[in-house]
């Protein structure tokens, strides 16, 4: 079964008497192990779609099945539970705790998941090694470069073995060379079988994904697989 299946999902925002149709009828199926970029100009609905796919919000209409589970009409608490288990988030702004070490930042999601301290530390160390930061475990964010901070955030997203890595403009705060390094890391994670969804408005970043879904005015304008890059399926 697909990891993600949206069927005709729509999203309407109400602003006073005005209705904004941010998504109109979006149907997307994503299989385990895919690496997909959501692209589109500002206002096309990327953030709205990411928030729904990431279980931060629910659609106004249509159906969203995540790992065989209908999450379209869940309450906020149910959604939070699914989100913590299934989704690893990576943000443009890293969202790391400034006073905590890389290790403690990465271990944080494991506290909510109920792991004991030594297990958390072991899993966090392993996740840091997986992003090439095994030697930086005890550094705090301000003792790391931008690219290293984003690697810590990626390790935090991976540590709980989520079904999906959901990255929102993951290179938006990074220079070109560092962005390229982060894309190389995502490619390595993809080759290892992770399912990755990345939201970006940059062509140069999107072309690293093996499939590009383009949104325009809340609709899927195109959905294209790059067969040169698709190592799975
Ligand atoms: P993108 O991420 O591609 O820039 P968004 O999903 O943020 O697009 O926005 C899609 C449309 O929905 C835009 O017209 C935007 O102004 C509107 N919109 C997004 N979020 C809200 C909100 N919370 N309330 C009202 N309108 C919103
Ligand atoms: P960007 O830096 O790309 O604008 P943000 O960090 O502002 O991204 O977050 C994008 C979306 O994710 C927003 O809807 C925000 O409310 C939500 N978000 C941000 N941080 C977290 C978090 N730690 N956990 C869950 N949702 C978050």
Automatic annotation (TrEMBL):
Q: Name a single GO cellular component.
A: membrane protein complex
**Coiled-coil blocks:** none
Q: Which keywords does this chain's UniProt record carry?
A: ATP-binding, Nucleotide-binding, Translocase, Transport
**Residue ranges of the ABC transporter domain?**
4-233
State the superkingdom.
Bacteria
Q: Which GO molecular function terms does the record list? A: ATP binding; ATP hydrolysis activity; transmembrane transporter activity
Family in the record:
Belongs to the ABC transporter superfamily. Macrolide exporter (TC 3.A.1.122) family.
* Name the record gives this protein: ABC transporter ATP-binding protein
């Amino acid at each position: 079964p697909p990891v993600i299946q949206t069927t005709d999902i729509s999203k309407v925002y109400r602003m006073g008497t005005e209705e904004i149709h941010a998504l109109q009828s979006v149907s997307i199926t994503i299989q385990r192990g895919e690496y997909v970029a959501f692209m589109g100009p500002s206002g096309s609905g990327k953030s709205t779609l990411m928030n729904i796919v990431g279980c931060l919000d629910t659609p106004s209409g249509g159906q969203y099945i995540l790992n065989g589970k209908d999450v379209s009409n869940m309450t906020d608490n149910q959604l939070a539970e699914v989100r913590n288990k299934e989704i690893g988030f990576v943000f443009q702004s890293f969202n790391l705790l400034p006073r905590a070490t890389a290790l403690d930042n990465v271990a944080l999601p494991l506290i909510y998941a109920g792991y004991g301290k030594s297990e958390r530390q072991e899993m966090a160390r392993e996740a840091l090694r997986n992003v090439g930061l095994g030697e930086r475990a005890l550094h705090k964010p301000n003792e790391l470069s931008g690219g290293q901070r984003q690697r810590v955030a990626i390790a935090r997203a991976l540590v709980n073995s989520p079904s999906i890595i959901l990255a929102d403009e993951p290179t938006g705060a990074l220079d070109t060379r560092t962005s390229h390094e982060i894309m190389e890391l995502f490619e390595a994670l993809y080759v290892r079988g992770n399912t990755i969804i990345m939201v970006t408005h940059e062509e140069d970043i999107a072309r690293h994904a093996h499939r590009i879904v383009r949104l325009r005015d809340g609709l899927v304008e195109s959905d294209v697989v790059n067969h040169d890059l698709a190592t799975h399926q």
